[in-house]
What we know:
Organism: Candidatus Avoscillospira stercoripullorum
Helix content: 25-40%
Largest sheet: 5 strands, parallel
EC number: 4.2.1.10
Structural class: alpha/beta
Bound molecules: 1,3,4-trihydroxy-5-OXO-cyclohexanecarboxylic acid
Distance between the termini: 13 Å
Strand content: 15-25%
InterPro entries: DHquinase_II (IPR001874), DHquinase_II_CS (IPR018509), DHquinase_II_sf (IPR036441)
Radius of gyration: 14 Å
Order of helices and strands: EHHEHEHEEH
Family: Belongs to the type-II 3-dehydroquinase family.
Amino acid sequence: MNLLILNGPNLNLLGLREPAIYGRQSYADLVLMIQDAAARLGVSATVRQSNHEGTLVDEIQAAYGVFDGIVFNPAAYTHTSVALLDALKAVGIPTVEVHISDVSKREDFRQVSFVRPACIATIAGHGLGGYIEAMELLKEHLTR
Ligand code: DQA
C-alpha cells in the first residue's frame, strides 16, 4: 500500500513557525515520525511539501495510479483553493485532510475547508499525531 503524505505552504517551517500553535518539532521530525509509523503499519509513505498551489495540484495529478491514499494538509490553501478540491475529485484517491491545529477554534477564515468535500475524513487539532492517525485510518479504509 502506497501512501502520499502531502503538505502545503509553510509546513516546512514547523518548529520555527508559531510554536505555541504548531509545536516545537521540526518538519524533519515529522518526516521521521511518518516513516516510523509506515514501517509499523507495513505501508510505504512518500512525504512531499510545497509552498506552491500549482505544484500541489501537479502532485495530486501525478498520484493517480501510483498512490492508494493521500494524507493531505493543504495548510492555508485549505481555506482558498478550488483547484486543490478539483484535483482531488479528478483523481478520486481516498484522502484524509489533516490539520495540526484545531482550525475549528481559530479565526473565522479558517472555518471553511474547500478540500473537505473530497476527503473521507478530517483530523484536526491532534498535533503531528494527526498524520499518524490519518495513515492508520487510510490503511483500515483501504483494506476493508
Ligand atoms: C494548518 C491550519 C491552516 O489554517 C494554516 O493555514 C496552516 C496549517 C494546520 O495544520 O493546523 O498553515 O493546516
